User: Fold this.
Amino acid sequence: MSLLLNRSVFGDSANKGKVLSRAEAESLFNEWVLNPRLQLHMKQVAHLMKCWATEKENLDEAGQWQWEITGLLHDADWDQWPDQHCKKIIEELELRNVDPEIIHAIASHGPNHFGVEPETQLDKMLFAFDELSGLIHAYSLMRPGGYEGMELKGVKKRLKDKSFAANVSREEINDACNRATISLEDLIQFIIAKQGSVV
Ligand SMILES: [Fe+2]
Ligand SMILES: [Fe+2]
Assistant:
């Protein structure tokens, strides 16, 4: 089964800056995503994106919401329509006249699967957070204290252990860090510091 999107333009440039309200985004989220584990993953990525936009990109409130909603909706169709991931959510957001930057970021969150390269920093950070967030969460679940006291070296050890969270591609994580020009260590530290507060 191929998830290749076979397109390179997403959304309409006339819609730049247009976003769903928080209530609209949450109602789409609740309607489409029924699996609690996937819900948590999407909320975690949304939180990481928001924190990054605020602390590293110094964006204003509108910019922070643009980053947060991108994380919040990036896997919206994965639960009920995995064979249409992420085509279905892209088409839905296009119908709703959403900012093309948000749609492009969602379309490029798996360049090896969807065939769309991350271009902007928004695109690149979504790609970078996506898989590493899941691996770090899996690690937290096997630690008695969860995120409490988690250290960089513990995460690096799990990354080296190919049997741990074996479906998480180490190559993609390294590739994502290179594209975003951030070190793997900094990315891990950022996720450890922020992700534990999302429940
Ligand atoms: Fe995905
Ligand atoms: Fe994801």
Observations:
- Residues 7 and 116 are 8 Å apart (CA to CA).
- The chain has one domain: 16-195.
- The mean pLDDT is 97.
- Residues 121-142 form the longest helix (22 residues).
